[in-house]
Design brief:
Layout lengths: L2 H23 L7 H7 L12 H11 L2 H14 L2 H19 L5 E2 L2 E5 L2 E2 L4
Antiparallel strand pairs: 1-2, 2-3
Length: 121
């Protein structure tokens, strides 16, 4: 299996585990809220209005596992399940993106990612 395939598999597994964690700590959240939160990191694409370099930087900042992990850890330390769930959902989004081949963006354009060009493989 190629390195890209391994990263895609890792993303899928992390997305599933993160969703399970979020569901365990926030079982009473309304169903309509889940898709909104899952898509929230993609709001960073607005940065592309300022050009590909700024767009890639903002998109990449919002699409690191570290952001969700830090939010979840703050929630754990503060005893705030909503932050744990929010961080887990953030990580689930990043994992799902990786699984689907949407990697971190290159400044050359939105289609160019660390997993290859979107639309191939």
């Amino acid at each position: 299996m190629s390195a890209v395939a391994w990263q895609r598999l890792e993303g899928a597994l992390l997305a599933l585990a993160a969703l399970a964690l979020a569901g365990a700590v926030a079982p009473g959240w309304p169903l309509w809220l889940w898709p909104l939160l899952l898509l929230a990191p993609d709001l960073a694409m607005i940065g592309y209005l300022a050009g590909p370099r700024i767009g890639a930087a903002l998109y990449n900042a919002a699409h690191l596992y570290a952001g969700g992990l830090v939010l979840a850890l703050i929630g754990l330390l503060a005893g705030l399940p909503a932050l744990i769930a929010g961080g887990a959902i953030w990580m689930a989004h990043v994992g799902a993106d990786r699984a689907l081949g949407y990697g971190l963006k290159e400044a050359s354009g939105f289609q160019d990612t660390h997993l290859g060009r979107i639309g191939r493989g």
